[in-house]
Design a protein that fits this description.
32% helix; Rossmann fold; 5-stranded antiparallel sheet; alpha/beta; Alpha-Beta Plaits
Length: 321
């Protein structure tokens, strides 16, 4: 696997505080990589190190197979959580100025900006001042400026903050389009549902150290609690009595001839055994494993336990088997 960015054994200390403690990450090319953690975990420090705003005390950094150099900043686009625009400047004028700082010539910048501004419904505001924009519109403008020079690596820190659901979906689509067209994205957020939707891999940092990393789908599977949702028709005998006391069975609903069960199997018991027994009880309409959400996994790994309501079926997402 090829990596656009690698950090090896990065340590960063501030006075009386260790912000990063022997942190190593490898970001695959053309992927969306989630950088997660509670407030104060060390995420922002790592992002600043990648952008060469600050340097590490120890460790090595690599960009696209080379040691990280000052000139690599031209191949990185960074959208920080704290936005910053010149409020008195006109929107189009400012966008052109910032694009030229990223080595995009004025003619090409204007052409590209017009396309993006039209896509994000900003074109009528071209000659307006930034202070006239809503928060969401200003954030869309900064998103466009961040990606305009087509960097190899994009770093988005809470990119959906302040957006309504329609614009969140618009931005998600564009982030996935950027990945599909060759860009790599480091995506930092506290919104775990967005992580499940768009991230390929994640690293979870807590108290300056990595506590979880890997592919999102594989992480969810590794946290399986053995919980299944089952729908049966033509039930011959009660499933509760048929499966025995080693299974935790609850009837979640019934409508006419359709029974909906939620079952937790014993640890180590193959799901095929459960399915075989269920098939003897009636006609199986659906058999789905219910995995913990990334939100619950985040809480479990940071605090050491799942949230109190973790057994509520609404806190899981079904994966068809």
């Amino acid at each position: 696997m090829e990596y656009i960015f690698k950090a090896e054994n990065i340590t960063k200390n501030y006075t009386g505080h260790k912000a990063l403690d022997n942190v190593s990450i490898s970001v695959p090319k053309q992927s969306v990589y989630g950088l997660l953690g509670p407030n104060g975990a060390g995420k922002t420090t790592l992002i600043r190190i990648i952008n060469q705003i600050i340097g590490p005390d120890e460790g090595k950094l690599f960009f696209d197979g080379e040691k990280l150099k000052p000139e690599h900043v031209h191949f990185i686009g960074y959208l920080p959580e704290e936005r910053g625009l010149y409020k008195k400047m006109k929107i189009g004028e400012q966008a052109l100025y910032l694009a030229q700082l990223k080595n995009v010539n004025k003619h090409d910048a204007k052409k590209k900006l017009k396309v993006w501004f039209e896509k994000f419904d900003l074109l009528p505001w071209w000659d307006k001042k930034v202070e006239e924009l809503s928060k969401g519109m200003a954030q869309k403008m900064q998103f466009i400026i961040t990606i305009l020079h087509q960097p190899k690596l994009l770093i988005f820190d809470e990119p959906f903050s302040g957006f309504d659901p329609i614009n969140v979906n618009l931005l998600k689509e564009e982030i996935l389009n950027l990945r599909n067209n060759g860009a790599t994205i480091i995506f930092s957020t506290h919104n775990m549902s967005s992580v499940e939707e768009i991230c390929d891999d994640i690293t979870l940092i807590n108290k300056s150290r990595i506590i979880l990393e890997g592919n999102v789908k594989e992480i969810r599977k590794s946290h399986s609690l053995g919980i299944y949702c089952v729908e049966l028709e033509d039930v011959k005998k009660p499933l509760e009595s048929m499966l025995g006391s080693q299974y935790n069975v609850s009837l979640e609903g019934k409508s006419e001839n359709l029974y909906k069960y939620r079952i937790r199997k014993p640890d180590g018991d193959p799901s095929n055994n459960l399915l075989k027994s269920i098939m003897e009880a009636g006609r199986v309409i659906s058999f789905q494993e219910v995995l913990p959400s990334m939100n619950d996994i985040f809480i479990k790994n940071v605090t050491g336990k799942y949230p109190d309501e973790v057994n509520n079926k609404n806190n899981y997402q079904n994966n068809q088997i």
